[in-house]
Structures are given as structure tokens and as C-alpha cells.
């Protein structure tokens, strides 16, 4: 972390030595989308009609020395049945220089490569609506964090390295000058560190990899197993076809709560790790119509080899048709062993209408 600190200090010093900033521009963006969702099988209930209810406010500008900056914050409802008051969240401030980028993020700036394999016509299965209970790698966007990115063009093949650090893995949204009391301070983990590498070795091929590790919490003497996770994805496009492949590894933290004693946490319910294997195929039938098929499988391994595990699997067929500024999409997804529970199978049918603006 010493090297990261030196880079951050250098970038901050560069900002201090600059002159005035030019007036920035303010933008408002969002998604005009309506959906109809039905579930059948182990999880079923009322058919759901949803309308997108988030807006993103953004600002950007340029300093006298050519450095650029951007800021964004989202306006979301608090999720109550009656709609509830709106919340400001998911904020970030990013300064881009010839030497790289410096970012300050709160519940934003995710670096996980777990979903980069996705080539679906509508959405990554994880984002279609139903929570399948699959364990995904840790993502730095879950916490307040600071990031440093290398500049594009510095490393061959368009490679960019992104480093991130969350000092205390705080999850609450502190306003400017927030200090001391942090309701979102995690008692079980200390800092979270993450790295992401993006590269394009040949035309049409994008490869990403990420890795995250979390320190033990102050409430514990040691960890029986550290929290480590990561993923690697590759996506290749040629003509009308795109294929994506991904692999993830998630090792949960197992804490020693008995002080200096080694608990040897190998109980039947203690998870050793989860391994995910993902495939996504897509084809652009014409300028308006695209179709896709994807399959995701997560294999759970327990500390005790005798513990029976049930793979969490999902497969999705999707199609999207664009007519001018409107896109109509259909996604039919089958989930097997939801939350790694045997025979907990669900089918989700999702119809979405999205307007461009």
C-alpha cells in the first residue's frame, strides 16, 4: 500500500499546483424502462410490473492545465412499499491526468471482472431481477474507496491497471467532511484491497481479471481463512457473433472468535470456496434484432468433504429488438438449486421495454 499512497500523494500534489478550473457541465441521465416479471417453480408470487425510478446527476469540467474531472451522484428511492423518500447515493469524483486517474467513490466504481464475460442481448443473469443466491466475488464498490488507474497507452495492448483501497471497509455514505462515527464500519473485516487488469491483446478480444483480499476485523485474534476472491473473463467479437467465457473464485472469511486459540473451523456448514464457470453466446441477426444464450454454474465446496453440495446453475435465452428509440427485450431464465439448495428450481420470464433519451 506504500506505493499506492505515493501515487495518490503525487496526483493530489499535481492538483494543488494547478490553477483555476473551468466551469463544468451538468447532465441528468436515467433509464426509461418498464418491465413485467413472472416467476414459477420453487419461488412464485404476484406478477410484478416495474418502472425504472433512478436518476443520475453528473458534472464534468477541465482544469487550466488540461486535467479533466467528473462527478456523479444517483437519486434512488429507499425501497419501501409506498415508494418512500429519495436517497442520494452511489457517488464518485474522478480526476483524470496524463499520469493516470484518481477516483474517490462511495458505493461506486466496481472493479470486479466476474460479469465481463456477459454478451447477453438484454442483461447479465445476475441483473435480470430474481436473486438466485449465487455467491459472487467481493467488489470494492460495496465500500467507500479510493482508486488509482494507470493511463491508457502506457502499457502495450491497451492494458490498464486499476488499484483500489477501502481503509476500513465502510459501507455507509458519508458526506464531505464525514469523520469519526461510521455506522457502516465492519466489525469483521478491516481494509479491502482490490486490483483489476484490462487488456486487448488482439482485435475483437477483451480480457479482464480482478482480485480482492480483505483484512481481519479488530474483533478477532486471527482468521482461520482470509477472504479472497477474484475472476477472469474473456469476450471475443467477430462479425455478428460474440462469445464470452468467465471463471470466478470466492473464498469466504472464516473467523477465529476464541481469542488466541485455533478453532480449526471445519464444520459441515463452513464453506471452503465457490468456483464459478460462465459462458455467454450472442448473435446480431440484423441491425435491429439480437439473440443470446448464457449459462452460469457455481460449484460450492465445504470444509468437510463429506458435506454434500448442490451446484447453483442458471441458463438464460434472451432476445432484444430495437425500433428507433425503443427496445423490446425478452429473457427466459431457468435457475436450478437456488442458494445451493437441492431441487429449489425457478423459471423467470421477463419482458422489458426501454426508451432511449
What does this structure look like?
- The protein is mainly beta.
- The chain has one domain: Porin (Beta Barrel).
- It is 4% helix and 52% strand.
- The protein has an 18-stranded antiparallel sheet.
- A hairpin with a 2-residue loop joins strand 18 and strand 19.
- About 3% of the residues have low confidence.
Quick overview:
The chain has 357 residues and is mainly β. It has one helix spanning 2-16, and strands at 25-30, 32-41, 48-51, 55-62, 68-77, 86-97, 100-106, 144-149, 160-166, 189-199, 205-216, 222-225, 227-238, 241-251, 254-256, 271-284, 289-302, 312-323, 326-336, 346-355.
At the fourth CATH level, what is the homologous superfamily?
Porin
Number of domains as seen in the coordinates: 1
CATH architecture: Beta Barrel
Count of DSSP strands: 20
Strand content: over 45%
Shape: globular
Structural class: mainly beta
What is the CATH topology descriptor? Porin
Characterize the biggest β-sheet: 18 strands, antiparallel
Summarize the amount of helix as a percent range: under 10%
Rg over CA atoms = 22 Å
Unreliable spans: 11-21
Q: How many DSSP H or I helices?
A: 1
| Integer average pLDDT | 85
- The end-to-end span amounts to 42 Å
Return the CATH class: Mainly Beta
Oligomer: single chain
Spell out the helices and strands N to C.
HEEEEEEEEEEEEEEEEEEEE
Give a topology summary.
Layout: H1 2-16, E1 25-30, E2 32-41, E3 48-51, E4 55-62, E5 68-77, E6 86-97, E7 100-106, E8 144-149, E9 160-166, E10 189-199, E11 205-216, E12 222-225, E13 227-238, E14 241-251, E15 254-256, E16 271-284, E17 289-302, E18 312-323, E19 326-336, E20 346-355
Antiparallel strand pairs: 1-4, 2-3, 2-20, 4-5, 5-6, 6-7, 7-8, 8-9, 9-10, 10-11, 11-13, 12-15, 13-14, 14-16, 16-17, 17-18, 18-19, 19-20
Amino acid at each position: 500500500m506504500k506505493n499506492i499512497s505515493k501515487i495518490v500523494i503525487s496526483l493530489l500534489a499535481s492538483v494543488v499546483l494547478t490553477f483555476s478550473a473551468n466551469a463544468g457541465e451538468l447532465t441528468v441521465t436515467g433509464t426509461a424502462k418498464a418491465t413485467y416479471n413472472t416467476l414459477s417453480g420453487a419461488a412464485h408470487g404476484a406478477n410484478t410490473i416495474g418502472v425504472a425510478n433512478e436518476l443520475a446527476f453528473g458534472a464534468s469540467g477541465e482544469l487550466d492545465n488540461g486535467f479533466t474531472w467528473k462527478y456523479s451522484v444517483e437519486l434512488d428511492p429507499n425501497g419501501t412499499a409506498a415508494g418512500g423518500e429519495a436517497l442520494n447515493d452511489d457517488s464518485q469524483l474522478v480526476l483524470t491526468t496524463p499520469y493516470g486517474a484518481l477516483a474517490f467513490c462511495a458505493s461506486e466504481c466496481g472493479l470486479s471482472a466476474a460479469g465481463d464475460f456477459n454478451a447477453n442481448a438484454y442483461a447479465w443473469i445476475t441483473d435480470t431481477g430474481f436473486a438466485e443466491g449465487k455467491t459472487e466475488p467481493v467488489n470494492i464498490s460495496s465500500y467507500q474507496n479510493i482508486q488509482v488507474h494507470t493511463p491508457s497507452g502506457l502499457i502495450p495492448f491497451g492494458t490498464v491497471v486499476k488499484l483500489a483501497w477501502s481503509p476500513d471497509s465502510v459501507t455507509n455514505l458519508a458526506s464531505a467532511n464525514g469523520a469519526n462515527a461510521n455506522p457502516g464500519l465492519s466489525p469483521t473485516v478491516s481494509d479491502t484491497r482490490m486490483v483489476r487488469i484490462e487488456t486487448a491483446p488482439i482485435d475483437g478480444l477483451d480480457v479482464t481479471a480482478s482480485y480482492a483480499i480483505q483484512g481481519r476485523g479488530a474483533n478477532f485474534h486471527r482468521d482461520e481463512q482470509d477472504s479472497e476472491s477474484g475472476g477472469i473473463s474473456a469476450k471475443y467479437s467477430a462479425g455478428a457473433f460474440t462469445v464470452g467465457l468467465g471463471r470466478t473464485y470466492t473464498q469466504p472469511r472464516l473467523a477465529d472468535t476464541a481469542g488466541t486459540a485455533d478453532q480449526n473451523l471445519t464444520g459441515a456448514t463452513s464453506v471452503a470456496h465457490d468456483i464459478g464457470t460462465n459462458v455467454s453466446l450472442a448473435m446480431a441477426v440484423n441491425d435491429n434484432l439480437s439473440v443470446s444464450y448464457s449459462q452460469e454454474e457455481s460449484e460450492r465446496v465445504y470444509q468437510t468433504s463429506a458435506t454434500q453440495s448442490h451446484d447453483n446453475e442458471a441458463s438464460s435465452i434472451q432476445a432484444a429488438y430495437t425500433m428507433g428509440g425503443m427496445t423490446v427485450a425478452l429473457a427466459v431464465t431457468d435457475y436450478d438449486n437456488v442458494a445451493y439448495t437441492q431441487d429449489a428450481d425457478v423459471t423467470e420470464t421477463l419482458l422489458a421495454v426501454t426508451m432511449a433519451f
